[in-house]
Amino acid sequence: xxxxxxEMRLKEKGEIERLSNKTFKFDPLIAEGFYSANYFLRSRxxxxxxxxxxxxxxxxxxxxxxxxxxxxxxxxxxxxxFAHHPExxxxxxxxDGEMMxxxxxxxxxxxxxxxxxxxxxxxxxILARRSSVATNVNEVVRALRGTNxxxxxxxxxxxxxxxxxxxxxxxxxxxxxxxxxQGAWVGVKGIGTMPHALIEICGGDVYxxxxxxxKTFPDEPATALIDYHNNCxxxxxxxxxxxxxxxxxxxxxxxxxxxxxxxxxxxTSLFDPHGVCKELIFALRKxxxxxxxxWVKIVxxxxxxxxxxxxxxxxGVPVDTYGVGSALVRNTTVGFTGDLVxxxxxxxxxxxxxxxxxxxxxxxQFFEE
Length: 369
Description:
By secondary structure, the chain is an alpha/beta fold. 33% of the residues lie in helices and 20% in strands. The protein is elongated.
């Protein structure tokens, strides 16, 4: 089918939401079965040659409560693009961004098995990846309690995952990314200032590196990486005094293996001083304010999870922006299964599976522009 064909999503209130297949980028090799499990391809051939025309219902579900559904629009676009006679299929689906519980169907497709069944494993993978990322991001967003954040997940997996993961991240509530690829499907450009490499190029001079950035991008806020010498409080105050209001923010990215020199000679027996700890951030905020630089914002990154962010926002740790990476795209947490549950209008499924009624699924219709 042409990528100019769109899918129409009927909303509960009767409005029409249209998402073009052009939103999602598919490898044309899908049409040749390159990414389909081989036994689905063989099953399609058998059905075509020896048992065609049966009408089946396939449903997809997962086994986790309080999970965020994502990848449904992409799966629908996949079906629309690669299924045979997609206009004959009945598709019912949750919307991307809706919450779902264990065992609840997220997607149902009814039609001739030979027209769409070979796409089963691809849909499994799309729903699993997108819903896992969206669920992880949703947990982080809840923990943030409204604090600003951006995704640094580009470095946590193969680069080819960035666009899809970025889409799921956007659906779940994080709208800022470190790469253009992460925001490609939603039209958002990447943001960022400097890596440690720029400071090294400047011989370890944080001030020189930050000024070079400011001179090169004078209309953008300058955020300085401040942990290069593992002396964040001293270097941040020194930089603020030398740059004044040209310094917008400092980012603390201290390795978990290190203890900032701020704690040299201080008693740290009552807390863990390693990495980006809250005691360091409280001290940094206090030092900047006392130095007359209350405008300098604090950005933190390096190992932040939903659990750690939840603790920090609950305690009021003075962080203006969290950079989050691995917590957004960590191990698959929402795994999907697709099962045939109806055959020619009657219940038919393997032991332990059944057609699960749902009033939450939305009918999806196809039309040509």
